[in-house]
Amino acid sequence: MQVPVAVAQVPVCWSVARNLEVVTAAISAAAAGTVLVLPECALSGYDDQLSGLGGLDPAELAGARDAVQAAAGHSGVHVVCGTLHFQDGRWWNAAVYFPPAGQPWVYRKVNLATHERGRLAAGSALPTLRMPLPGGTICAGVQLCREIRFPEQWHWLARQGALLLLYLTYAVNPAEPPGVWRAHLISRAAETQRFVLAANVAASGQHCPTMIVSPRGQVLAEAPAGAATTLRVTLDLAATHDTYLRQQRGDVVGISYHGAAGEPDRRG
User: Which of 8, 226, 264, 267 is deepest in the core (most CB within 10 A)?
Assistant: First the structure.
């Protein structure tokens, strides 16, 4: 199955209105049937201090999500976008899938960053996402930012049938050693034999690239650091395999899942 994908490296700020303009522009530039991935908190805004969290208006953000859903429906684009998400009286760091038809799907970040702990609620499940594309329904998994450091979560998603691993991040820390997170992305793709689509924010000081990696660990496309741009590739899902997953020595080391039921959360 051939799947057109686009990964947008876009600027993110604490203005929901401005972020919405950027997100909807990226949707408008994508062809119908495309899977479009945008960075962590691309809709709400974000930084490494959560400095704008107190000024976020849940009602404004809910309206922005409705606007993105409408844009996805109008364009036929399958949008996966990061946002801070207010629900049940708490804020979550989330990725939302906006399908062209149907209800949004929400993934809540399981492994929070140090500065998020105590201020954001942590998710408790690693659900897979089923996307009804023109060529057929495919399964994807979603991870956010520092979850790149926890390969067991990626392996679990691959074992549940995810063929695309969608990675949304706001990785802007020049103090991080160069190349480490890029190497992580290549490893996650090669060890699971899945496509990895990684979207980072367009900002100086990036320590993780925006890029698309094949199941062999080959970098198919990579954005220039800091530049606002979109990568576009058509993926052949026949390139994914389960060889390494089958060869893992489960009698020696295994992954045991203790999270909530892995059904998609459609409460968004």
Answer: 8
